[in-house]
């Protein structure tokens, strides 16, 4: 209804003239046959036979249209068409020629879609002097053609979209009369004068790639990153996908849509980086120069341009909405990805991007997707009109901006234009047809309501190939030079006044395409990510430099939720598992050293437990708890367990000592366990036995008796020494008296002198240092005394 109404003011003269000519030709054919005295049926006029053959859909010959220039002709131009024809049959075709046929103008957007799929009659053939002759076409041998015709010979009278057919007509041995044996049809937009009101067209130019960086980094100061593969270098190299997008996009008036993860990955490649191997080894990356050149050109290109930054790693919003919301931490990851997006773009490209937009896969939305998309701060959702469908109340394609409630705007991209370049554009024929159909649809939008200016948004596939990018650029260059369209930014399209009759009702969850739902990340994926986050939370609290771990793992978990995993489910599982496994390996670098059996020979001793830190950085905020499983036999201090804080420098070990008290003979199991300061267990426990050799009462009596004897011996030695001292003092007194009394004689003096060399008395003490024991030590680990 809409498309029928849009041409009420147009002149149908080209179509009428065509039908009149065809009717006259068919009516005159019998007369002409009689005049020439030829058989009536098989020898009818060539035009009639051609029409009949074409109506049967003959396709013996494959016709490929490799180029058409100019894509949007103007008055005075010469249209040049080139391509190839290939005889697919088994018989040689003779008296063949390739010609151009111009049909009537199209009467709506759906008519363009229908005509593109049809292989039916294509209109009258242009003057036969603008043809390419082929006397013979052998089976399976391609032949090229090139035809140039002045535009004024095409009889393009009224503005609009014309059907343009390239046909091969010829004869076969079985049917020795001219007939159409192959056809390729396309469209020719004709708008030689500027339209009174031009359509504002916004084209999103995406710079997005798959996830390449892992969570792993080398243990050096620079934290050299490790990449899953070296595929990103191929995309950046001359002729690569991303290089082509950049080289082509710099000359176009587009809105750049960038995944900050791509920028971060390329920026990491400008320095030292490693490539992960199949055997868990790594090799140095060698494409720093390519990365630097691409990043430098991008920074220069986007200055002054509008840039939209997606959340980091382009999270899959539909997967989050349908399978991730039940997992506690999933939405917090989306918020983190949004927060880091602007910072990443600003720090690398030195421009300020917009982070107000959310872009679900294929623009497919439902209420839960909209809610998740806006939960992280975006207030505009990029949708598509094959999801937010029109009700048919408008006879034209409405402006893209729509209020959908809650202060949220949906920018509804045009599905036909957005999907125009999704095929294999490396094939020249496909590329040419895609460009012409894109331009035809764009002109038809303007022709629907020529007096009403509308704002149309085109959101192509997220990761166009190099050939798709080239075709997109060719179409956009022609569109920017056209007389019916003008370029506009996404922010301009967002602010455009909505059409009152445009659809604004967000479709229900049941209407979400099943083909897209099958590609979503499952709930198990978000549960695995949550488990990894829990481990990271426990790990980071013990680190002295948390950024070395939190940042790479945080970004890796953003990548694990990326839209790029759609269609690559096995790779997504491998990536998530790799992130978790690497974190487990890091956690294990801080551990307790296993202990053998320890011996406690006596009432008390100290038990050492060693904590090893193989990380580059130091760890603290750890607590080591030592617990006796048999506290009636062995206590740690005066209770069943004791705790001590632990702090270990990077690459070192620390021995933590606990006092143990034995209470009975036998073995007692002891458990050593590390905890974080908030009470979460860290790492596995270490269990070992302590063998207590308690001293018996009899032995205690013997020892006590021995101690008593030692005390008595000491007392005896003390009294003997005291008596000897007294005797010596008395003797010295007597000697002094005799010295004064010379009558005593020299003999006593001589006796006194000889007393100094008297032999040692039996009561003198023996040495108190016992000889060292030469007995071998007992088996097992000994505790410190």
Automatic annotation (TrEMBL):
Polar residues: compositionally biased ranges: 505-514
Region Disordered, residue ranges: 489-514, 726-785
Pfam families: DUF6049
TM helices/strands, residue ranges: 699-718
Gene3D superfamilies in the cross-refs: Immunoglobulins
Record flagged with keyword DNA repair: no
Cleaved signal peptide residues: 1-46
Bias kind Acidic residues: ranges: 731-751
GO terms, biological process: carbohydrate metabolic process
Transport in keyword set: no
InterPro entries reported for this sequence: DUF6049, Ig-like_fold
Alphabetical UniProt keywords: Membrane, Signal, Transmembrane, Transmembrane helix
Organism superkingdom: Bacteria
Protein name: Secreted protein
